[in-house]
DNA sequence: AGCGTCACAGCAAGCGCTTTCTATCGGATA
DNA sequence: TATCCGATAGAAAGCGCTTGCTGTGACGCT
């Protein structure tokens, strides 16, 4: 029914071992023999049996990429960059690896299950992107899993995620705290003193770090934060819309709104407009990430640009063993403040 | 070193066969035995060897999702919906399947290679999303591959992609032609007579169908199209920006610009604004897809909404055998015209 | 001429699991 | 009490491939 290595061997009049060696190309095979084998492969339309190969060789060519939300360009862009480096087909040199993107939906359980699934497949490498959930037991479970993966020879890389000490994982971390601080300082510099903050979901490292940066900036400038100035929500547009309405309700005198990310900021803009407020004349708005659409918002969004593509590419190369891990196995990647039209001096 | 089935069996004092049966749960095992085995699995922290299992059982739990550009929300949204249904971990019932997203980058070769890789992994199902490349030899190669996959028992579903006759693939197709026509008719209805069109890359089914719809509308209303009114480009914002500038150069009297998709439309809006033109007073703009950010554009984008999530979910269910394929194995999914602020009557 | 050296090719032993077929055992039935 | 049957458990044969080790001629060296 299906063509096997043995069939090819028979056709080429060589042993299965030879066919295997031709296909894997890590053992001397005479040119004429190789030629003959290749022809047989072609004629028979042979396709290697992945599982069998992985079993025998005790390795597979699967590389897992875990993302929190594949529908979010933040992850899409990183995944794309990672995958480009992993190779998949068309990548640069190296064996062909199947880079697979796994969507955890931000759920700790799914994250764990995917890791198990990848472990089960004996993945060659795993890249985890984006913020982690801070729930202690879960974090411990993930750490344990990562260690096990690393021990089993799977290269583990964290991209845009805080380091996981003692797991053997390489971490490329975004400086969310620094970015958050810089952003808010920019606003304060413009004269804002009453700033609302729309945070992401609680218990997420990204959420916490950005918020900490924001608060550090406030504190550094002697601004006492009103507890009502912070609202938590999801990392999407709708959440930003609702949260902004809530902020306005709590304190109509706010002159600036800082959002957890660009999507949230867009929702905030919509809410402000719907409330009859002008941006930035009445209220300034700032986002985070600098996703492609942010520059097209009207006014264009002041935000912190994160080098998503570059970080992803680097993570991909490290996962493939094509680039040295950073010293200490941890690298911090800084964002860049992008001042655009959505931020300006406060009214009055 | 690694824990195997045999280790678990030894620990639980049963045969490997029994352990396997407990794990797969399709054979009667006494409750107490099962209990004992499960405990051993737990204590040993056993993880099934996927390749070995796939080899022995001649099936795997991998499901491939091919997308043209994972950084594009169009695909991200579909992939997300598909994956949610495939299960992956956390999906509803059914065995746990590893839904993997493969990024072809729109390249025919990579598409083919990914299909081979999935075939090699003996994937349980494959979902191909988005438009296909129209290059004849390539189309034939893909068709052949799909047939082979289907023959090997892999369920093949096309989502947002034209049918592939005689391949055994189920197709859920978007009515791009109808949507394109409706959109342009809306513009014509507003009084526009000189409409620019920014098409996607040539040789893509999606590009062609949308353009055909546009032209059908023009023709139906007796409008003779100027050859300079159409510009081809990529499906991204920058391309839209450049193409719009080009259109304006060719014919400054255009009163409307129809874009291949929303990202392109956003780029078009930016170019128009930068050229000192107001939307829609001077030029109306229309997009396609209705991605989440489209409603936040200023003015919000008139576009054709495609039920990406719904289609993806359905494709996922069909791929899992959880929903009946449509009669004739082909279903056409219509878009819905969303009239918003970016379209209005022409000036004068 | 004699023999170590290469360069290749084949043998065969698994890799860790699934699954068919074959026991086994405690009733239930006659 | 002898027989049969359903419910379980085990033995063992692979699944298709990789790879360490073992030939085996052809060469080149002394």
TrEMBL record, chains A, B:
<keyword id="KW-0238">DNA-binding</keyword>
<dbReference type="GO" id="GO:0003700">
    <property type="term" value="F:DNA-binding transcription factor activity"/>
</dbReference>
<dbReference type="InterPro" id="IPR010982">
    <property type="entry name" value="Lambda_DNA-bd_dom_sf"/>
</dbReference>
<dbReference type="InterPro" id="IPR028082">
    <property type="entry name" value="Peripla_BP_I"/>
</dbReference>
<dbReference type="Pfam" id="PF00356">
    <property type="entry name" value="LacI"/>
</dbReference>
<dbReference type="InterPro" id="IPR046335">
    <property type="entry name" value="LacI/GalR-like_sensor"/>
</dbReference>
<protein>
    <submittedName>
        <fullName>LacI family transcriptional regulator</fullName>
    </submittedName>
</protein>
<dbReference type="Pfam" id="PF13377">
    <property type="entry name" value="Peripla_BP_3"/>
</dbReference>
<dbReference type="GO" id="GO:0000976">
    <property type="term" value="F:transcription cis-regulatory region binding"/>
</dbReference>
<keyword id="KW-0805">Transcription regulation</keyword>
<dbReference type="InterPro" id="IPR000843">
    <property type="entry name" value="HTH_LacI"/>
</dbReference>
<feature type="domain" description="HTH lacI-type">
    <location>
        <begin position="3"/>
        <end position="57"/>
    </location>
</feature>
<keyword id="KW-0804">Transcription</keyword>
